[in-house]
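Dear colleagues,

As part of the handover before I leave the project, I'm documenting each prediction I ran so the next person doesn't have to rerun anything. This entry is a single chain, and its sequence is reproduced below.
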Amino acid sequence: MAREERPTLRTLASMTGLAVATVSRALANDPQIALDTRSRVANAARTIGYSPDRAAQRLRTGRTNVIALVLNPHEEIIGYGSSMISGLTRALRGTPYHLVVMPNFADREPLEQIENIVRNRLADGVLLSRTEPADMRVRLLLEHGFPFVSHGRTELATPHPFVDYDNFKFARTAAHRLSKQGVHRPSMIPAPSRLTFAQHLRMGFLRGCAEAGLEGNILEGVTLDSPPDSIYAHIAHLIEAGRLPDGLVCPGETSAMAAYAACSDAGHADKCRLVMKSTSQVAGFIRPRIDSIFEDLAAAGERMGALLLRAIKGEQADALNYLQPVPASGSTDIDGDKE
C-alpha cells in the first residue's frame, strides 16, 4: 500500500484557497495577517495533521524554532524541572517554538552542552540554571551573541538576561521567623559554594540573625545538593553529639524533609524549628506543618520564556532582568513595610 504523502504548505493553500505565502505567514502567527485567516489556516493544519518541515525551514530562515532548556540534575530536580517546564510551555504557547530539555550531568564538562548547541545551531535560544559568579557558559553565550536567559545571576561585568529569586531576602526572612518562634541558635543548610545564590543565602541568613540577635551558624559537611540520606545522617550525628541547633533554615524541600525525619526519628521533632523554601505543594501536606516560604518556579519559567523571546528579537540585555520577590506572608515585613 502506498504511503500517504506528507501534507505541505501547498496542501493547506489548496484547502483554504489562500496563497502559499499567506499560509506560511499565518502559520508563523504574523500579526499582519488577519486573525480569522490565521485561525482558519491553523484549523486546517490540525485537520490534516500538518507540521512544518523543520529541516527545510531551517535552511530557508536560518532558525530552528527550538528553545533548549539545559538542566543540571540535583536532588531537587524533580520539582524544579517539572515546575520550570510548566511555566516555559505557557510562555511558548502560541509561538512556533518547541521546548527541548537537555540534561547536563555532573560528569560532563559544563561547557560541553552549550558549545554543542552554539556550534551546531541546535536551538534559537538557551535557558540555563544554577549559575556561578564567573559562569563560563554565560561568557561563551555572550561572546557568540547567542540569545539566552539564565535562572540565576553571575558577577560578570557584562549585563546578561536573567530571572532570579531573592534568596538573600528568603534567608533573612527565615532567620526572623525562627527568632519569632523562640529560636536562639539557628543553622542553615547551605547551597554548594560554587553557585552564586549560595552567597546570597549565606549573607541573607547572617544578616537576619544579626538583626534578630541570634547566634547563626552555617552547617558544614552537607549542602542543598547532598543526598537525603546524607543530610539525615548529618542531623542524626548532631543529635547524638548534643549539638542539634534549635532552628534550621532549609533552602529546599528535600533537605527539609530529610532533616525533619532525622529529628522526628530521634524524638527531637519539637526541639528544632524549621523554615524551608518550598517549590511545590508538598509543604502543605506535611504533618505537623513545616513553616515554609514559597518560590514560584512555574512563574519563573514563564518569565524566562517571555524574556528569551525578547532576547531572540534582539532586545538589550539590561532590559531583560527580573528578580523574583519573596511572596507576601500577610505579616509585617522585616523592613518595616507591609508584605
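The chain has a mean pLDDT of 89. The first helix runs from residue 9 to 16.

All the best with the project,
I.
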